[in-house]
Design goal:
The structure is a homodimer. The first copy, chain A, is of the alpha+beta class and about 575 residues long. Chain A contains 15 helices and 23 strands. Chain A has three domains: about 90 residues, Beta Barrel (OB fold (Dihydrolipoamide Acetyltransferase, E2P)), CATH 2.40.50.140; about 210 residues, Bira Bifunctional Protein, Domain 2 (BirA Bifunctional Protein, domain 2); about 130 residues, 2-Layer Sandwich (Gyrase A, domain 2). In chain A, α7 packs across α11. The model of chain A has no long low-confidence stretch (mean pLDDT about 95).
């Protein structure tokens, strides 16, 4: 070893010890006849001290060290005169006897500090320098700690980690596959798995009983939002279980991870049906760190001439609102911003009604012309409105109203700091519908994936009213982000065939895509179910990241490019010829 | 849960308990008025008992259950009258009150037993049934246990598991890359990593200090021998270390894995140089479960007219042999087989000399014409030949002699049972050459990979006699199989540039292939080194498998095909158009 101690472990009780350290020069300070160097490694920072009076030559070579030089130093641990309470090694320093330069460094393209001056693009290109920044380094350590805690828990519960292959058959599950041309069988392709869904179900057919895997998954989607072409799942499956078993097991595991990685004790997770989540929070991943429920008004509105409300109700739509606590004093500009927010294309409202319950006890509204004060106060009561509150009401198609109010409540919560930054909202959303209607084509499509088991009591609607059938499907939602999705699976070939047929797949298509799976179901498939965690997002949430890129060692840029390696790249034509393909 | 207990946990102390079990029907036996069913799950087998006298109807439905039906049973644990000492649950049985069929099964295409009647091809096609066989199931469990033990040890030593990307740049490391066409950048391709070699070195540049990863690697090679297009490595790297630190750490880990997974305490691992391994065992992965060293005779041969020996020595070749203990009584046919063995194309000897030290004290040889008895006995002494021993001597180019005798010693050891099947030979082979000469082209090529650091004391030969330069490279060899390969890496840009130049790469090629890595070396790369374990092979060795397919859940057949999923397969032309490629 090039060191006897690392840069994070020396304390006052090591005083007098001779040690050898190795690491990177974080900074060099020249103070009169003294030179101080902060030496950094993964474990921390230790101050090195050089004195011109005791060793002029050594001291002068030390001043010549540049940022990020790698050096090895020998010296004695001594107590600092000026202690630094901000770092664990802040009570000591090394009285350096000699040092060796192990490697030089050019000046890095950005500062190696949490508050760096480098753009994200530059930092992705020099990711090996970016990872030297404490925050990113600590994120990768926390990620490893979290995964370790997951494995600990699952191993303890009798789960077995099994690796499934990555060169599989292209079996579209909803997203686009990455393809890998076969050299030995020209014209044929492997696909990279979007998830090990089918393979883990086959492991249940194989009798492995409890499986998990921390596994890379691949989806060739466009880079809208926070997506990566490859991402990591904690993938799990259990046999002979019902939903409740899954809830117990993975709620337990999630709590264990919080405890191990963050020292946080989570309370039991609430459960909310998909129907209620949509009704009260306008979202299937509600953030419950704050309240602000959506209140539906169709049944309680007084009769007036206000066409917007009347039309919505007559057309089977919804009038509903939220109470923006303490926002009655919003300016015209702020109210206009809210209107613009709900009018954005993907929300699509025509506008929004406001009722302001001012601190002075007066009530003002954008619909004063149609509603008298008493009526407005009655509406306010539905929201438990108090002095200072702002009620915001939307009227349109149900889906638009919910989406807009759901988004608005999140937006206001952030702006108004309605929740503690250290708070956690972790809950189960259950009873998703099995099918939904594609709004454009009118086709029946699946909500989660085609292997989810319907609720037995809803099977009666399978043919007559398929979108009414609830699935035994569940998500785990953390601070408004879905971090787990799962279901009890279909294990009977007949039922699986019925679902595929309902989705409009012909027997030939089913056979080509899922034949091997249905074939497996002929040989004693046990009842089973499971889930998959989106690991990158969970790590991101637990490490204060803004995108999942912040939770990965070497992410792709938003264009799908690896800026460090410069991939994807053009390859030798010879390679393509060997694969039996050419570019067009 | 569909069960209160599993099929492996009930013992006599559960007598009288009412339990619910679920599992697969292994077999149904009908004995007079009694019906016995072996119910199987991952955890074991439990006997179910039905009595016609107490419940005729139930008993008759039980007789109708087919092999591999999935059932759930309720009943009471009771002591068996005829105990079975071969299984842990053999003292009890379940007096069944009722059962439910959870799923039916068609008759499986082969028997679900260790001694199955299914061919490997059939079993690969129905891998989900193959995994139900106890041996394969236990192999997967042992695999998980081994990996768990690796992680335990490495976590304890301060290693951090970090995931590296799988969609990277094509940077040929020796084998052929699998390519992944980019949809967003037509004409460009990602490659699947042959190993995370460069990325883990960048993690050292990034200061992560100690890294590991259980990771899939991909090589698009032909399916000679025991290869898989995707395989798993335990990949490791450490900073600020010398070879000795790597030996200590990974020897410790290997012992821990043996102890945890098999209860075996391994002794300290011997170390042998590459030069000695070749000299004494004719192989860089010697199996030391038995002795049988190669003995070189050039210096000690008496002068005779035997042209084969004389020519070999004059041409700079080698005369050497091995002592096949207790084989003096080999028949003419057996001796002919040995001759055929060494004459095989890939060994290429012209023949082999034998000297037989018979049990009756006489000496006979295929070179009686040229050597008198005294001379033969003198040669015998070099081998410590005793009565009953057979000395086999080859003379040819050094490489052919070593290869042939090395292979022969292994072949004889297996045939003659020279070693205990439960014995383990685990050793380090060190000091591999940095370069070798390509026998066909005469080019200088690397032995391990181009990132291995030369021994500092051999740098003097770098230009004058490059193949004399030893690298700080090491393999771990287990029962004659390489299961780990590693090296101290080059961390200085200048030296890395020199190695690339020596390998005949132009600066432009270096820049295109490894530019980002060399660029990283400008910014303070620490001294570092590491290794990678071939996990599949290690698991195979520890579970008594014959090929690495036996150590994987879903391997490819030798043609690179997944027989279960039928991959690779033809895809929609639409998919190819989106990727900007077409087949030719």
């Amino acid at each position: 070893m090039f060191r006897t101690k690392n840069c994070g472990e020396l304390r006052l009780n090591h005083k007098g010890e001779e040690v050898t350290l190795a690491g990177w020069v974080q900074r060099v300070r020249n103070i009169g006849h003294l030179v101080f160097i902060d030496l950094r490694d993964r474990y921390g920072i230790t101050q090195l001290s050089f004195d011109q009076n005791s060793n002029k030559e050594l001291c002068e070579s030390a001043t010549k060290l540049g940022r990020e030089y790698v050096i090895q130093v020998k010296g004695n641990v001594r107590e600092r005169s000026a202690k630094n309470a901000n770092i664990p090694t802040g009570e000591i320093e090394i009285d350096v006897h000699n040092f060796v330069i192990l490697n030089e460094s050019e000046t890095p393209p950005f500062t190696i500090e949490n508050n760096t001056d480098g753009s994200e693009e530059l930092r992705l290109k020099y990711r090996y320098l970016d990872i030297r920044r404490p925050h990113l380094k600590d994120t990768l350590i926390t990620r490893a700690k979290m995964i370790k805690a997951m494995r600990e828990y699952l191993d303890e519960q009798g789960f077995i980690e099994i690796e499934t292959p990555n060169l599989i058959k292209s079996t579209p599950e909803g997203a686009r596959d990455f393809l890998v041309p076969s050299r030995l069988q020209h014209g044929s392709f492997y696909a990279l798995p979007q998830s090990p869904q089918i393979l883990k179900q086959l492991l249940m057919v194989a009798g492995m009983d409890r499986y998990y895997q921390v596994v890379k998954c691949y989806r060739d989607e466009d880079f809208r939002g926070d997506r990566q072409p490859e991402f990591t799942q904690l993938d799990c499956e259990m046999s002979f279980v019902e939903q409740e078993d899954i809830f117990q097991n993975f709620e337990g595991m999630t709590k264990h991870v919080f405890k191990q990685a963050k020292g946080i004790e989570l309370a039991d997770f609430p459960r909310i049906t998909f129907a209620d989540a949509m009704k009260y929070y306008g979202s299937d991943k509600p953030d419950l760190r704050f309240d602000c429920k959506i209140v539906e008004l169709n049944a309680v509105l007084p009769k007036t001439d206000f066409a917007v409300f009347n039309n919505a109700i007559e057309n089977g739509g919804l009038v509903a609102g939220i109470n923006a606590k303490k926002c009655a004093n919003y300016t015209r500009k702020q109210l206009d911003e809210i209107t613009e927010f709900v009018k954005a294309t993907h929300r699509g409202l025509g506008g929004i009604v406001n009722i302001r319950f001012a601190e002075d006890g007066t009530v003002k509204s954008s619909i004063d012309k149609f509603f008298n004060e008493e009526q407005l106060r009655e509406i306010g009561q539905q929201f438990n409105a108090e002095k200072g509150d702002l009620i915001l009401i939307a009227a349109d198609k149900i889906s638009k109203v919910r989406k807009s109010l759901g988004d608005l409540r999140l937006d206001l919560a952030k702006k108004e700091n309605w929740f503690d930054k250290d708070a956690w909202s972790v809950l189960w959303v259950i009873d998703f519908p099995l099918f939904e209607k594609d709004e454009e084509t009118g086709d029946i499509i699946f909500v989660h994936h085609p292997f989810c088991s319907p609720h037995p009591e809803d099977l009666q609607y399978f043919d007559s009213d398929p979108t009414r059938v609830r699935a035994q499907t569940y998500d785990l939602v953390m601070n408004g982000n879905e971090i787990l999705s799962g279901s009890i699976r279909i294990h009977q070939k007949d039922l699986q065939d019925r679902v595929f047929a309902k989705l409009g797949l012909t027997p030939e298509e089913v056979d080509a895509k899922f034949g091997f799976m249905l074939n497996a179901f002929r040989y004693g498939a046990p009842p089973h179910g499971g889930c998959a965690f989106g690991l990158d997002r969970w790590v991101m949430l637990m490490t204060g990241g803004e995108t999942i890129r912040d939770a990965m060692a070497f992410p792709k840029a938003s264009s799908g490019k690896d800026l460090m390696m410069d991939a994807p790249a053009v390859v030798d034509v010879k390679q393509l010829v060997e694969l039996g393909i050419k570019t067009i």
